[in-house]
Structure formats: C-alpha cells, structure tokens
Amino acid sequence: MSADLILAASVLWLATAMLSPMRSVRALLRYLLSAGCVLGVAACLIALPTATPSVEFPFALASQRIAFALEPSALWLLGFGLVPAIFACWLGSPLSGRSGTWWAGASLSLLGALGVFGLQDGISMLVAWEVMSLGGAVMLAGERAREANGKPVLLMLALLEVGAIALVFAILLLDQASAGIGFDAFIAHGPRTSTLLSWVAGMALLIGFGAKLGLIPFYEWFPRAYSSGSGATGALFSGVVLNAAYFALSRGWNSWLGVASDSGTAFGLGVVAIAIGVVSAVLAILFAFQQDDWRALLSYSSAENASVAVAMLGVTQLFRSDHLNDLAGLAWTVALLHLAGHSLAKGALFLVADGIQASTGNYDIVPRGWIRNSRFMLGLGALFAVMSLASIPPQAGFVSEWYVFQSVFQGFHLSAFTGRLVLVLAGAGLALAAAVALATFVKLFGLGLLGMPDPDYQRPVPRRSAVAVGLLGLCVLAVAVGAPLWLNALASGAQTLFQANSPQAMLSGWLLVPLTDKFAFISPSKLVIVMPLLALIPLALLRFTRTRPARRTAVWFGGMTAHGRDAMTTPLTFSNAMRTFYSFVYQPTMSTEREHEQREYFIKRLVFSEGVTDLFERHLFEPAVRFVTWYANRLRALQSGNLNFYLALIGGLLVAILALTLV
C-alpha cells in the first residue's frame, strides 16, 4: 500500500514537471504537486514504524540494478518535510508570475529528495542528489533571481557542486573498498574498512552533505539564495530538501563506514561533527539576529537548526565509540525529532513571509500590526511556530532542545576525559545558540508581526495563507503533545542501527525522559492542559481587581508629541547592542553620505547605510574568485586568434607525442 502511494506521488510530480511549460494547464499544477505531497505523507504514516518493502526496478544504471526502499528514519523525515510542502505547493510562489518554471523546479526538488531518501546505490543516489540541487536552482530561476543577475543561484550551485565532488569521491572510495556500488555492499564491508579510508570517506560525506545543510563555510549561500526566492521555495528548502541531506549524512556515517567496530574512527568523526556543528550553529544564529528580511533571517535559522542536528550526530558517534548504544540511540532520535519540529515551524513562518509579501510587495521585517489586521489563524500559527523555534514550552522545539541538552549532559558516562570535555563545551555553545535564537524570534515576532498598523498597508494577509499558517502551527503543537505516540515510530530504526530501544526508553507514560525518569523529565502533553488552567488565575485577578479603565497616553519621544509609529523600535536598534558586543564576529560596517545644496552648510540629503561582514565571503570566497579571475586572464592568450600561435601549439604537441612514443 505505502509503495503504491509513493509511486503515485512520484508520478504526479513527474507529470507536473512535464506539464509545466503548457500555459493551458497551469492551474492544474498546484493540484498535482499538492496531491503528490499528500500521498507521500499518507504513505509515510501507513509504513511507519517499519520500513517499506524493497522494490527493484527492471532497468539498471551503469550495470547496477536500481532498488528503492525507505527505512523508518527516512519515512519520518520525509513525512514531516512533506507536510509544509503541501501548503507551499498549494499556495505556490508569489514571485513566479505566469511562468511554469517554479512548478518544474519544485517537482524536480521533490523527486530528487525522494530519490535521496530511498535509492539504494551510490550512482543513482548521486543522480537524485543532483536532480534535487537542479530543482532548487530552477525554482529560484523561475522567480526573481534574474533581478540579481543570477549571482545567488550561481553561488548556491557552485558551493553545492563542491559538495557533489566530495560525495563522488566518497562513493568511489567506498566502492573501491567494498567492490560494489550498492549500499548493501557498503554495509557488509563496513566492519572491514580501514581506519584511514573511513576517516577520509567520512569527512568527504560531511563536506558533501554539509554543503546542503549549511555547515561552515557553506551557510553563506543560504541568505542569498533564499532571499532571491519566495517563502514557498524556502519552505521546500528548509523542509524536505534539508531533511533529505541530513538523512543521507546520517545513513552514511552510521551504516557505511563501519564505525560500530572502529571506536577510534567513531570518536574522531564525532568530535569533528560536534565542533563544526556547534560553531556553525552559533555563527548562523548570530547572523540571523542581524537580518531585516524575513527570508534571510529564516534561512540562517535553518542553517542553525541543521547544525544542531549535525552536532547531535556527532554526539551519537561519541557515545557509540564507548559502546554506549542506548545513549547513541538517544542522540540519534533527538536529531530526528529536532528536524521534524523544525520543518513544520519553519514552513509556517516562510508562508507568513509570503503572506506579508502579498500585502506589501516586500519581505521587510517592519512593525505593521499584522496580527491585529489579519485573521486569528495567522496569529495562532505564527505564535506556535515562533515559540517552537525559540524553544519555548510546550512546543516541539522546546521538546527537542530539552532532549539535546539532556543528551549532552550524559557525557559523564564517557570513559575518556577528552569526550567529556567536548560535550561540556558543546553544551555551552548550544546554550549560546539557544539564547540568541530566543532573541532572534522575539525580534521576528515582535517587529515582524506586532506593532501599530500602518495606514499605507491596510490590506490583511490573504486568507489562504493565514489558514495554512494556522494549520502548520497546530501541527507543531501536535508534535510536542503527541510525542509519547510519535517516538515509537523510530523504535525499529534505533534497534537496527544501535541494538537499543532508546525511543521507547524516552517515554514513561506521558512523561518524556532521557532514558530514565531518575535523571529528568517533562510532559508537554500535561503542560498543554495545565498551562491554560494556570492562565485562569491572572485572568481572574485582572477581572476582579481592575476598578479603573486603562489610561492610554502618547509615548515619550524626545519631549515632543509624536505619532506612535515614529517611536517604535526598528530592527537596527533592536539588534545593535549585540552587534556592538560581538563586533569581533560581525565586523560591522557603517557609512554616511551627505549631499549638499549650494553650500556645505545646507544638507539636502543624508544617506546612512550599515551592515555586517560575511566572514567566509571576505576571507575565503572573494580570494578564490580573484585567483580564478587572475588565472583566466593569463590563459586568455590561448584565445588570441593568432594562427601562427595555434600552429606552434600543435607542433609542440606533436613533438611531445613523438617523444613519449620513443621513450
């Protein structure tokens, strides 16, 4: 049943890609894409907690028979990634106009992600990976990327191709070692893989999949590419595409490299993943805090959340190196839970951004009172999503963040002092990232959705967007409240990888515990009942103690009576204190230009600009571009058009060939 539904979903997505150039059926495309996502979610729900049966296709690729199967963790990440994709595809991109390019790109991204989740050999997986990347570029090209001369898309493709080369290298290494390109051969030969090969292949996999996950230095393509597209594109990027990249990295490290039998490799890779994941999370969320565009802020946040998941993958390897399989299964499960809640919450906020763009024509974070002017469902969904990404109870992000710290706190079980120290430092770094994330989403909600209504923007967020955001927000709450039910879906996956019952041990009735209720516990299921009841107390006090009506007066604004909108906090003033404190990271830039009228005493125009420095663009990407440009200019002489020069080159080649032949 589940295999049939997945096949039907892929057929619908393929039909969308084929029909996208036809204007006469343009309205049909949203139905096909959305229906395919619905079928995909249904297939995941039916198949969990077990894997789908393996299906072998009647054709081969490079003499390798192609097989397809989805294991429980793939079903989990695919299902949660497709939920926001349903609404993103239904609403479509507000920037695509009448072009069908965006629909073709979305269908290619979904097909590629499905292949990354389910294909069972290295060649076909690499093809699916490239199709997924191509789909993302096509989506952006179908929007307003051409207004920036395509540079954000080219940067994205350039960095993703660096990752693709690393993946090809890793697959070739594993193929050479196991004498087979299929994942079954990788797994079977894993315990006999040499330490050096496991190290090199593991690092290549981290670079390859990390390019899509936004690890340093790759996260700098996120704000550029996301900001050149729509929120619908961002919802697909931060949902099913990001989940597919993490699943592929997790599968590679946990299954292909034989780390279960090589403690040294597992420990080393774990330390590297924790260090890169924590540093990436801190840097990404610090730069997210400084953004004043919805898409840029949310894209940096996606890189931060993916980095937290990678850090937990490193924690998994650290526990596995000490044969603490239950704790390894705990960290592995926590990463999947974290990405599930992130997919839903981030999809909701990207759709909020599209709703604001439909009303204002831009994605600026400006206080315009959207909650007051728009419908209840918009405020409800946005609030739940922001609470989750800020790790505020009882939302899904709070549950996963709590589990993250509980996993790190278990470091005292490790026998090596180095491992214990790494987890202590990781906990400190993740705490910093969580604190900045809280401030970031307070800024996003307070300045992006609250404030006084702007009379120039009286049009509310479209109703369809508000309903979609509200439903996704309720799904975020459902993930947290229903965690005692959902976690059982990962039991068989943890048992297969770690021979541990970690997901089941994370439950004690309606309590969530880190393997034992003697260490710590929470219960979002009970919190969602108790918190509204506790809210009745201040409401009753407010009702029975208020004897005078509230008196409203103008905000003090430099001693002058001013309109309330003039006294509101701006994104710059809200984030300037942290920009100053972390100036060694941000390296802020400010400039003031003055235009005078007739004489210098009379200023006609004052232009102020500010920004922060992209570290890797300045110190890594720009030098690389300068080197390539310099080298290309030197090689330009080969295209001089001088016939004598070309004849000389041919003559030199003939002499070299003869010399090699004689030798």
Task: Lay out the secondary structure.
Blueprint (H helix, E strand, L loop, with lengths): L1 H18 L6 H22 L7 E7 L2 E5 L3 H20 L9 H18 L3 H20 L9 H28 L4 H7 L5 H19 L7 H7 L3 H26 L6 H27 L4 H28 L3 H36 L9 H4 L2 H14 L6 H14 L7 H32 L14 H19 L1 H4 L4 H8 L3 H4 L1 E2 L2 E2 L11 H22 L25 H11 L1 H4 L2 E9 L1 E13 L3 H21 L7 H20 L1
Antiparallel strand pairs: 1-2, 3-4, 5-6
Organism: Paraburkholderia saeva
Enzyme class: oxidoreductase
Subcellular location: Cell membrane; Membrane
Strand content: 5-15%
- Which strand order does the major sheet show? 1-2
Assembly state (oligomeric): single chain
The low-confidence parts are none
Distance separating the two termini: 66 Å
List the total number of helices: 26
Q: Structurally, how many domains make up the residues?
A: 3
Helix vs. strand class: mainly alpha
| Morphology | globular
Transmembrane segments: 6-22, 29-48, 74-93, 100-117, 123-141, 153-174, 196-219, 231-249, 269-289, 296-319, 331-353, 374-392, 421-445, 466-487, 519-542, 643-662
Enzyme class: oxidoreductase
EC number: 1.-.-.-
Organism: Paraburkholderia saeva
Concise overview:
It is a multi-pass membrane protein. The protein has helices spanning 2-19, 26-47, 72-91, 101-118, 122-141, 151-178, 183-189, 195-213, 221-227, 231-256, 263-289, 294-321, 325-360, 370-373, 376-389, 396-409, 417-448, 463-481, 483-486, 491-498, 502-505, 524-545, 571-581, 583-586, 615-635, 643-662, and strands at 55-61, 64-68, 507-508, 511-512, 589-597, 599-611.
